[in-house]
Amino acid sequence: MKMKSKVILLGAVAVIGSYLLFATGKKAYNSVLDAPQAAVIKTAYTGTAPAVQPIDFEKAASAAVPSVVHIKVSMKARQVADQDGPGDDQQDPMGEMFKHFFGNGQGRGMAEPDQKASGSGVIISADGYIVTNNHVVNNATAITVTLNNRKNYTAKVIGTDPNTDMALIKIDAKDLPVMTVGNSDEVKLGQWVLAIGYPLNLDVTVTQGIVSAKSRNIGINTQASAPVESFIQTDAAVNPGSSGGALVNTNGELIAINSAIASPTGSFAGYAYAVPSNLMKKVIGDIMKYGSVQRGYLGISMAPEGLEDAKKKELGIDNDVDGVFIMDVDPKGAAGEAGIKKGDVIVDINDQAVTSDARLAELIARQKPGDHVKITYVRSGAQQNADAVLQGKLGTFGSVASAAVESLGASFSDLSKDDAAKLGIDGGVIVNKIHEGVLSSQTNMHPGFIITKIGDTRVNSLADLKDVLSKQGSNFQIQGVYPDSKEVYYYGINDFKK
After folding, report:
1. Catalytic annotation on 135?
2. Which of 165, 344, 348, 419 is catalytic?
3. What range does the domain containing 277 cover?
4. Is 243 a catalytic residue?
5. Which candidate in 5, 120, 230, 243 is catalytic?
6. Please, are residues 278 and 366 in contact by the beta-carbon 8 Å criterion?
7. What tens digit of pLDDT does each residue of 277-302 get?
8. CA atoms of 38 and 31, how far apart (whole Å)
9. Known catalytic residue: 435?
10. Predicted TM-score (pTM) of this structure
11. Are residues 254 and 163 in the same domain?
12. Which of 250, 266, 291 represents a domain boundary (last residue)?
């Protein structure tokens, strides 16, 4: 699995209606934008079907396999920076994993060989739209899609969303087999599932397992500015190359996109994680309709999960209330304007239970600016309701801090302890890639820059960066270093919160 997540800037998508019609005038079925079809196979997950499990998975596999494709990508060689300073070459960091293979950028410049990688994808439209992971196609210079019938096509990227690690690509084809998208909210713990993809450059492979957890946040998407992780966890075996493939139920319906594994070795070792289909549909649907994701923000800061009882008592968190405790509220954000206050506990969003910050993040991420959401919360032991209108800026499903980081217009990751020691600093935050935002409009900062201070406050981690930015005024300096230069650089930021 190609574990990296970086931002890709893409042009606006063409009007969907212009290419949904064949020459015959027949509309191509699209399982993201169109109404769902009837389940391919009737089993325990189809409402009125008998509550029994199938004795095998043959029908579900046969129905789903033709819609899963093999994706092969090429990425251009990058120039390793020399020790003369940042220069004008834009570094293209590929994450800590690649440092083990290619070194850490010390020494004179040298070109690295072209990179090859592969993953999987799922056909969602009869005329060639395919959903996959952003980390599968990120920075690709060429993309080849191989269908289950061995036909090869050149693909182009239509749009990406690094925050959910989703991407949409398209091939020039028609009458393709479309996978029906199921309702991930109906997925139950213990439910049988199949993982379908092209792991380890093998031909299409089907493995089976059960759903072992829902709304799981594993903190793997560290380079996104405002990551949303609410994975479905399964013990169905997936391996490198499975990314972007399908997790299907025994109806043959897509319930999630396989995205990550938890493994000390890099190969399957017990658990796999997949983006729920309902979140995927919202993200990919936005890309198809608008060209980018339309994200609504709530404007709250949530208490971290896993707090010790003493800390909960200090914060005033009631263990008897099952929900998400609000640490802070942006008074100008959607929640603040709806009357939500610090200390409230959110228990439902649109009548769907909220038991974790990951679940809350997912439910809000499935909305867009201007959407009304019904918030059920507990205050002083009494349950109340509020109607919030989501906003498009400042304030976020996770925290106000994440929105502040997002406005900088870059992807970030923590500087490892080893690299910090080599540079003689306590820590810092690496600027991986710069796109549209404050940094590109107000500075000439280059990717690879390591932020060590915001104003007079030390920044040793991404968590520090979020916290410091949320408390900054409108004007401040960003201080830091480049890996191959001993100079300290300063970048001025003005009107940050306007």
Report:
1. yes
2. 165
3. 1-76+114-291
4. yes
5. 243
6. yes
7. 999 999 999 999 888 888 888 888 88
8. 11
9. no
10. 0.65
11. yes
12. 291
